[in-house]
Specification:
213 residues; Rossmann fold; globular; binds uracil
């Protein structure tokens, strides 16, 4: 699956790494970026769900009756941090179509880099479900930390965080705030620049997927 250090799993599957490289290229088009994001998110979803518990269900094939494996427990919740999280969400829903979806709107104040909440809508019973929080970029960690604060206030306690790229500074902040939440990422990049962008990164993920710049 990948390297595991201090609560961070780096998903270094060759297909993930290859697609990520194309996404990083500045000349990759909006359409190309969006398609790759959808593809890569199914692969990331595959890895973040790899150890889910199974139970068995009695079924009949055309030939025999068997106890066959099915996922145990309640349906998953995918929690998208708006707006860039939605880019990861679509591919994940391709793979787990019955998942419930939460939307958390936090934006970064570009002056202070603080996370400000403007939207929150989640399924009622998040406390009984595995919640996989998605945001392509773990930069300062402020928006993901604030989003998970809100989900925990609503009772969520079984949480994983999935991103495409993480900065070491963001990982440190995130772990300090939510040591119980494991991080899954395709890459740990070098550092944050003075504007809070991940270097080398891929730029502004929202702008790149929606063509807003
Ligand atoms: N958000 C982005 O979209 N890109 C970064 O590099 C950092 C935060």
């Amino acid at each position: 699956m990948g390297g595991n250090m201090d609560g961070v799993t780096v998903i270094n599957h060759p297909l993930v790494q290859h697609k990520l490289t194309i996404m990083r290229k500045k000349e990759t088009s909006t359409a190309g970026f969006r398609r790759l994001l959808r593809e890569i998110s199914t692969l990331l979803c595959y890895e973040v769900t790899r150890d889910l518990d199974l139970t068995v269900e009695r079924i009949e094939t055309p030939l025999a009756e068997i106890d066959a494996p099915v996922l145990e427990g309640k349906k998953l919740v995918f929690a998208s941090i708006l707006r860039a999280g939605n880019g990861l969400l679509e591919g994940m829903l391709d793979l787990v179509p019955s998942a419930r979806v939460a939307h958390v709107g936090v934006y970064r104040d570009h002056e202070t880099l603080e996370a400000i909440e403007y939207y929150f809508k989640a399924p009622e019973d998040v406390s009984n479900r595995l919640v996989i929080v998605v945001d392509p970029m773990l930069a300062t960690g402020n928006s993901s930390i604030a989003s998970i604060d809100k989900l925990k206030e609503r009772g969520a306690h079984n949480i994983r965080f999935l991103c495409l790229l993480a900065a070491p500074e963001g990982i440190r902040n995130f772990h300090a705030a939510h040591p119980d939440v494991p991080i899954y990422t395709a890459s740990i990049d070098s550092h944050l620049n003075e504007k809070g962008y991940i270097v080398p990164g891929l730029g502004d993920a929202g702008d790149r997927m929606y063509g807003t710049k």
